[in-house]
Design goal:
The protein has 316 residues and is mainly β. The protein is 15% helix and 43% strand. The protein has two helices and 16 strands. The strands form three sheets. A twelve-stranded antiparallel beta barrel has the order 4-5-6-7-9-10-11-12-13-14-15-16. The protein has a two-stranded antiparallel ribbon with strand order 1-2. Strands 3-8 form a two-stranded antiparallel ribbon. Strand 14 (259-268) and strand 15 (271-278) form a beta hairpin. The protein starts with a helix and ends with a strand. Residues 1-33 have low confidence and may be disordered.
Length: 316
């Protein structure tokens, strides 16, 4: 009896195993199907009142720096981020070997720009030219992208003030007042990123100078700027900008020209290094729009660079 009982029990045990395994596998199929259904549900667009709600996606990095060459780009500093900028222009290349083709000369601007919000940037700077201090407010009004609240282009408004602290000589006392040293600039920066490689920007501009040297000189100087960025490699891009002054050149005491520049953006980790050639010595609107004295046809070209380094000061 015992001999015949145990084999039957053993056979029953081995027969029960596959049955239990089949039951467990069958039980997992609805759970797995349910998980797949949940994943598919998450991938579906959001719905509101039965209609698909489009997702907003903003265009990133229309330009890689807050500057193109001399002028501003539509880019603003990220909230809580401080940008430290160094702008440098050597002398003119056509000065020859005596000055090492302008390398003996130096014009410099130091600047700080802070992202107060994601769209609002405030900044200050100091240029060695005319010992000028400048400040600005820059606000991104609209942003290129896809979805609600976007446009086919990015729009940024810019307002700047510059004051020269250079000691005047030979002028009446009233011309030395602070108000006579002030220059204001108003710009609307309009840019579109057409592809991952190419961006274009337009800059309608008005420069107002409280004091001009001659009565025939214009206090108000309207201009239109255009700029581009063409990506060459992952970390190298060709950039350029040009400003056309409407109504002819605004000065009669000295000859001026439209500002033009061509350069390269080099991304090196935490900062952007910009090398460029331009006929403008100055690096703020007060100088390079109404006071560019370099004649490209005569070889009046300044070699220079911009360096931008960002530091995070607060949470984004």
């Amino acid at each position: 009896m015992l001999y015949t009982y145990f084999p039957r029990l053993t056979a029953a045990r081995f027969a029960l195993g596959p049955l239990l395994l089949s039951a467990l596998l069958a039980g997992t199929r609805p759970v797995q199907a349910q998980s797949n259904d949940l994943l598919k549900e998450l991938e579906r667009p959001a719905m509101a009142n039965g209609a698909v709600v489009p997702k907003t996606e903003y265009t990133q990095a229309t330009f890689k720096s807050v500057r193109i060459v001399n002028g501003h780009s539509v880019e603003t500093a990220t909230k809580g981020t401080m940008h430290f900028l160094i702008g440098h222009r050597f002398g003119r290349l056509n000065e020859g070997a005596y000055t090492l083709f302008g390398l003996d000369g130096a014009n410099i601007r130091l600047g700080l720009e802070y992202g107060a919000t994601q769209n609002l940037t405030v900044g200050i700077g100091r240029s060695s030219q005319e010992k000028t201090y400048d400040g600005f407010v820059k606000y991104r009004v609209a942003r290129q992208g896809e979805g609600p609240g976007t446009l086919p282009f990015t729009a940024t408004a810019l307002a700047t003030t510059a004051v020269s602290t250079l000691k005047y000589t030979g002028l009446p006392l009233e011309d030395r007042a602070l108000k006579s040293r002030l220059t204001y600039t108003y710009q609307l920066l309009l840019a579109r990123k057409f592809s991952e490689s190419f961006s274009l920007q337009l800059m309608p501009t008005l420069v107002h100078r409280n004091l001009v040297e001659m009565k025939k000189d214009r206090n108000n100087v309207p201009a239109l700027g255009a700029a581009f960025r063409q990506k060459i490699t992952k970390r190298l891009a060709l950039t350029g900008e040009y400003y056309y002054v409407f109504g002819g050149q605004p000065n009669t005491s000295f000859k001026t020209y439209n500002s033009a520049a061509l350069g390269f953006d080099i991304e090196t980790g935490g900062h952007v290094f910009q090398l460029h050639f331009t006929n403008s010595k100055g690096m703020i609107e007060k100088f390079f729009i109404p006071q560019t004295d370099g004649d490209l046809g005569n070889g009046d070209i300044y070699f220079g660079f911009n360096v931008s380094r960002a530091f995070t000061l607060g949470s984004h």
